[in-house]
Structure formats: C-alpha cells, structure tokens
C-alpha cells in the first residue's frame, strides 16, 4: 500500500500553504533549520567556552565527537519511529524534548558536564531523517529528489546561520552588561526556547500524509499496520544498497557536520588576524551554500532520472562525490585566506550537491521501509563525522586531516556505481515518473485555462459595464 495524492510540483505551488503538501514542506525545512541551528549553536562559541572552562585540544576533539555520536543512535531509531507513529508526532516530540538539553548546556561548569549535554543535544540531529521522510511521502517521483534536497538544504542553512548569528546573540548579552561566561549560556537558552515553540507549531500545522495522519489511514486500511513495521525494518537492513548509501552519506554529510564543528576554530587558529566574529562569518559561508547547492543536487538527480532512469541518479551521485573529494584536497593545501575562502565555497557546493543526490536515490530503495532506509543512511552521515572527529582529536595538523578526508571521499565516490536496481524496478519507476510528469503538466495546463477564462470574465464584465454607461 503506497501513499496516495502526492504533489507533482513544488515550485508552481510554492506559496500555496493551503495545500497540505506545501505547508508540510515549509514546516519541515524550518523545523530542521531550527534543529540544525540548535545542534551547532555552541560551535562558534567554542572559542569562549574553551578559554572559560580550560579545555585542552583533546577535550575539544571529544566534544566534536560527542556532538555527532548520539545522532547515529537517534537516526537509526527515528526512522523506525516515523514508520510506526508518523513524522508529525515524531518531529513534535523530538523538538520539545530536545529543547531541554539545548538550554541546559548553560548549566555546564566542567568538561564532563559540558560533554554530557553536548552528547544529549546530538539527538536532535535525527530531525534530518524526519524531514526527508515527510517530504518523501508528500511529493511524487518526478519532484521528490528536488523536494528532499531543498528541505534538507534549507534546513542545513541553520549550520551556516548559527556561525554568525550566535556570536551576534552573544554580543547582545555582552552589550547588556553580562560576562562572557553568562552570555554564551544565555545564548543557548534562547535557542532552546525557540525549538520548543517550533515543536508545538509542527503538531498543529502538519499532518503525516496528503490524505491524513497515519492513525486514520491505518484505520481505513490504507497503510500497513504497526506490527509489520519492525519486519520491514530488518528487511531494509539486509539490503546491501542501504549500507552502500550509508558509507556514501558518511563521505558527504559526515564531512559537512565536521566542518560545521571545526571551521570557526580552524580559521581562527590557522590564519593570522582573524577575530571571533570574522572566523564565524567565514565558517558561515560553508553552510550558507545550502540555500541552493543541495537543491541543485536533487534537481540534477531528478533530471538524470528523466534521461537514464534510476541508474542516472547513481551516476550523478558518483560525479558530485568525486568533485567533493578533489575540492577538499585542494582546500587543505590553501594557506592564504583569499585563496582558502573561494576553495571552501567550491568544496561546500560539491558536498551539499552530494547530499541532495544521495537523498534523490533513497526514496526508491524500499518504499515500504522508507523510514528504515532514510534512518540508516542518515546515520551514516554521523558515523562519518565521528570517524573524521578522531582525526581532529589527534596530534595531526588540521589541514593534513582535511587532506586525508579528501582522499577517502574520492575513494568512496566509486561506491555510487554499485547502487543498482532491477530491470523490473527501473521499468516500474519510469512509468510512475512519467505519470507524475503528465499529471504535473495537466495541472499546469488546467491552471493556464482557468487564468485565461478569468481574464475573459474580467474583460466581459468591463465591456458590459462600459456598454451600460454608454
């Protein structure tokens, strides 16, 4: 049983929030943005935290690892939860419960307590899986890659915005007369309150699927029962393609998470004359590319699929992942600021297109276990971030750590060529793709006819009124 009445267009209905698919799209990207902002809100303030609490380089490395480690567990679990209770309730509870450790980190007064809160905050990173799940059930095959990539990309913007927004919030508290120690703590309390409110809004403004919530659909027999969810989850885990995508996502999103954690410190420590705010602004340029880069990955994924079917999505994934690895290797060799910044942006472009390309493939691996696939692949991103975190925790210079990671990403790109689909699956998805395209064209044609008819009505009314006056 598949979800029905998915939207066949994103951009033509973009501001029509009366459509549940579009309203959900906007809520899910904003919720993910809020989570991402909260997840990495402390990263640009680590310069202050490090000095106040006296962290060593090794301890900073452990906080980087902690921030993404718990998310691995969260993403495995949250995909299963989405299949059982639906993305609406899953997101609502994640946001509300996640607000407490985000605000609570302000209570940390030692490395151990700070590490514990950083570990707990990492759980809200599982929000990504719900975002991809929710847009996947709302949009048809011809546009699902674009919808997934855009919602995730705009959500990931939170990682860029926080790089300059948190230092500004911190500065406001300083201006009000608070100390450095109090200001970074109050800044995190503000963020915690925001995601709490977003969680409440998500409950009232969205629903699980185009035709209703999962509970209602199960009562009508339009969706598989909860009891079957666990079985399909383990079936998805047995699919080698899921684990190939797990490692691929480790090589793109895992690297983005790592850069979000270390970029401000990297530019502050490795380039002369960089202030806290300047380092944050430079680091923000990496995350801000999400405003369009991840969307491009999804758009090209959909376009490659229109030309070469599902295998076209895999080819595109290989191309952008290879570009990411090469760009990162070049960035690691830049030791002059005016060369490092453009190379960081190019590296960011390929990284985020790779993420969009990955989740243009995910919805087609196993539709009956969409949550399982989305969760496992999403967990791969955090596994990659944990692995990369150990390089930055070691005695290796950070620029050499970037070089090693770039080489590994180039090697991982080859894995994309092993994501294959049966001829029957290719044919089935091609038919569904073409059907969705046709429905989208018919919808646009109907709107055009309505617009013409409305124009004629206006002209006729004008002529009739003018004739009466004469």
UniProtKB/TrEMBL annotation:
<dbReference type="GO" id="GO:0016020">
    <property type="term" value="C:membrane"/>
</dbReference>
<feature type="transmembrane region" description="Helical">
    <location>
        <begin position="89"/>
        <end position="108"/>
    </location>
</feature>
<feature type="transmembrane region" description="Helical">
    <location>
        <begin position="28"/>
        <end position="48"/>
    </location>
</feature>
<dbReference type="Pfam" id="PF07690">
    <property type="entry name" value="MFS_1"/>
</dbReference>
<dbReference type="InterPro" id="IPR036259">
    <property type="entry name" value="MFS_trans_sf"/>
</dbReference>
<feature type="transmembrane region" description="Helical">
    <location>
        <begin position="314"/>
        <end position="331"/>
    </location>
</feature>
<protein>
    <submittedName>
        <fullName>Putative nitrate transporter NarT</fullName>
    </submittedName>
</protein>
<feature type="transmembrane region" description="Helical">
    <location>
        <begin position="369"/>
        <end position="392"/>
    </location>
</feature>
<dbReference type="InterPro" id="IPR020846">
    <property type="entry name" value="MFS_dom"/>
</dbReference>
<dbReference type="InterPro" id="IPR044772">
    <property type="entry name" value="NO3_transporter"/>
</dbReference>
<feature type="transmembrane region" description="Helical">
    <location>
        <begin position="337"/>
        <end position="357"/>
    </location>
</feature>
<dbReference type="InterPro" id="IPR011701">
    <property type="entry name" value="MFS"/>
</dbReference>
<feature type="transmembrane region" description="Helical">
    <location>
        <begin position="398"/>
        <end position="419"/>
    </location>
</feature>
<feature type="transmembrane region" description="Helical">
    <location>
        <begin position="274"/>
        <end position="293"/>
    </location>
</feature>
<keyword id="KW-0472">Membrane</keyword>
<feature type="transmembrane region" description="Helical">
    <location>
        <begin position="154"/>
        <end position="178"/>
    </location>
</feature>
<feature type="domain" description="Major facilitator superfamily (MFS) profile">
    <location>
        <begin position="24"/>
        <end position="424"/>
    </location>
</feature>
<feature type="transmembrane region" description="Helical">
    <location>
        <begin position="184"/>
        <end position="205"/>
    </location>
</feature>
<dbReference type="GO" id="GO:0015112">
    <property type="term" value="F:nitrate transmembrane transporter activity"/>
</dbReference>
<feature type="transmembrane region" description="Helical">
    <location>
        <begin position="60"/>
        <end position="82"/>
    </location>
</feature>
<dbReference type="GO" id="GO:0042128">
    <property type="term" value="P:nitrate assimilation"/>
</dbReference>
<keyword id="KW-1133">Transmembrane helix</keyword>
<comment type="similarity">
    <text>Belongs to the major facilitator superfamily. Nitrate/nitrite porter (TC 2.A.1.8) family.</text>
</comment>
<keyword id="KW-0812">Transmembrane</keyword>
<feature type="transmembrane region" description="Helical">
    <location>
        <begin position="242"/>
        <end position="268"/>
    </location>
</feature>
<keyword id="KW-0534">Nitrate assimilation</keyword>
């Amino acid at each position: 049983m598949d979800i029905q009445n998915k939207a066949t267009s994103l951009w033509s209905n973009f501001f029509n929030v009366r459509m549940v698919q579009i309203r959900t799209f906007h809520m899910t990207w904003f919720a993910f943005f809020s989570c991402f902002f909260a997840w990495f809100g402390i990263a640009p303030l680590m310069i202050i935290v490090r000095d106040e609490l006296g962290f060593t380089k090794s301890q900073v490395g452990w906080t980087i690892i902690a921030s993404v480690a718990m998310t691995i567990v969260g993403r495995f679990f949250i995909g299963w939860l989405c299949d059982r209770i639906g993305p609406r309730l899953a997101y609502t509870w994640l946001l509300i419960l996640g607000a407490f450790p985000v605000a609570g980190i302000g209570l940390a007064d030692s490395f151990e307590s700070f590490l514990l809160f950083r570990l707990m905050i990492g759980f809200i990173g599982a929000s990504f899986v719900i975002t991809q799940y929710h847009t996947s059930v709302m949009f048809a095959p011809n546009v699902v890659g674009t919808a997934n990539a855009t919602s995730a990309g705009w959500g990931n913007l939170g990682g860029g915005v926080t790089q300059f927004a948190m230092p500004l919030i911190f500065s406001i508290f300083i201006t009000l007369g608070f100390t450095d120690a109090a200001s970074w703590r109050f800044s995190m309390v503000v963020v915690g309150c925001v995601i709490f409110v977003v969680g409440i809004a998500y409950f009232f403004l969205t629903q699980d699927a185009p035709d209703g919530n999962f509970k209602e659909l199960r009562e009508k027999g339009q969706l598989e029962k909860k009891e079957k969810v666990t079985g399909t989850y383990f079936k998805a885990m047995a699919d080698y393609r899921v684990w190939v995508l797990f490692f691929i996502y480790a090589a793109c999103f895992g690297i983005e998470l790592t850069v979000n954690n270390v970029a401000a410190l990297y530019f502050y420590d490795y380039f002369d004359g960089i202030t806290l705010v300047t380092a944050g602004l430079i680091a923000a340029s990496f995350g801000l590319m999400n405003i369009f880069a991840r969307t491009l990955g999804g758009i090209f994924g959909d376009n490659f699929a229109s030309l070469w079917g599902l295998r076209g999505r895999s080819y595109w994934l290989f191309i952008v992942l290879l570009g990411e690895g090469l760009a990162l290797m070049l960035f690691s060799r830049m030791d002059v600021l005016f060369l490092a910044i453009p190379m960081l942006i190019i590296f960011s472009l390929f990284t985020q297109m790779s993420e969009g390309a990955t989740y243009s493939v995910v919805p087609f691996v196993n539709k009956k276990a969409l949550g399982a696939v989305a969760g496992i692949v999403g967990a791969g991103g955090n596994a990659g971030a944990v692995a990369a975190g150990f390089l930055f925790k070691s005695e290796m210079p950070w620029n050499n750590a970037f070089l090693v990671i770039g080489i590994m990403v180039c090697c991982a790109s080859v894995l994309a060529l092993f994501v294959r689909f049966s001829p029957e699956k290719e044919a089935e998805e091609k038919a569904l793709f073409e059907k969705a395209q046709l429905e989208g064209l018919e919808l646009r044609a109907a709107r055009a006819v309505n617009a013409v008819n409305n124009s004629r009505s206006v002209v006729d009314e004008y002529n009739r009124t003018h004739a009466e006056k004469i």
